[in-house]
Amino acid sequence: MAVISFRNVTKTFPNGKTAVKDFSLEISHGEFLVLTGPQGSGKVTLLRMIAGMEPISGGELWINGELVENANPKKRNMGMIFRHFTLYPGMTVYENLMFPMKFRDLPEEEIRKAVDETVRIFRLEGLLSCYPRELTDIQKQYVAAARAQVHKPEAFLLVDMLKGLEPDIRRRVRRQFKDMQKELGTTMLYVTDDPEEAAAMDARTVVMRRGRLVQAGPVRELLEKPRNLFVAQFMNGLDFCTSEVRIVKGQGAVEAIGDHFSVDVPPEWIERLEQGGYMGRRVLMGYRTRRDPEKDTGEADMPAPDSGFLFFDRATEDTI
User: Fold this and answer.
1) Are residues 29 and 50 in contact, defined by beta-carbon separation less than 8 angstroms?
2) How far apart are CA 6 and CA 63, in angstroms?
3) For residue 67, is pLDDT > 50?
4) Whole-angstrom Cα distance, residue 132 to residue 88?
5) What is the pTM of this model?
6) Alpha-carbon span 27 to 216, nearest angstrom
């Protein structure tokens, strides 16, 4: 199991594009961590640097207390699995599982023992004589994950493994993957650009944007206490809207007044707005919307009563 530490890591490619900027993060021994953010935010590049497929351009990358300077996948012992995995078509499932072990000059008995243990963990007993063409997509994913596990990697690095699956299958596979991760105790990093998928993993989650770490924490914290407007919009999805409002302090209540509505400001926000000097000023208010399903125009209606309002500075878009 790996302990992974990024310390102000930067990755710039030869064409001048910087994919990761000043990235710092500590990943614990045996942790399940989710990396999310829009496409092109640097998530996969981070995994490739961990696996040794890309050298870092600046900063420090530590794995198990050792400073890693050069890209060398063979010495990292990482199990990296992309969504578009490759199984050897001319080999059975059992032969696919054995194949990586044969390059390590291990005794045949040790190889078989490792493969048999992996087969048990991934519940592949009924598929061992099948060829990849005879498997469903999800079965292929299980085999690919099992093949990565045979040599007991320090960490699993998974990229969009569940993308494209039907919702009910995705829920089942998600649960099984997390159960297997607990049984194996292996550090696991899961990359997805789908915020709903990230939230459903119910693990510490890192939100990235343009190569930078924007916020990291439990899913509930990202949803209810986002650091800025970007995190709020990305994690809450399409039902999250913003309106420009003026904060007005009356005799009986503090109100947020928009163009077509006004709402009472929740008590927990009043002190923060007062201390920040926002009384009488315009701010951005974020909220979930209440739509009329009979005549949904795609535009935001009134804020839902239970929307859990958020307020952001108009200039910086940081949470007040």
Assistant:
1) no
2) 9
3) yes
4) 7
5) 0.85
6) 11
Joined tokens for residue 217: 């924490």
pLDDT in tens, 76-126: 889 888 766 678 899 999 999 988 777 777 788 888 898 998 898 888 999
Structure tokens at 291: 């739509």
* Residues 124-135: tens digit of each pLDDT: 999 999 999 999
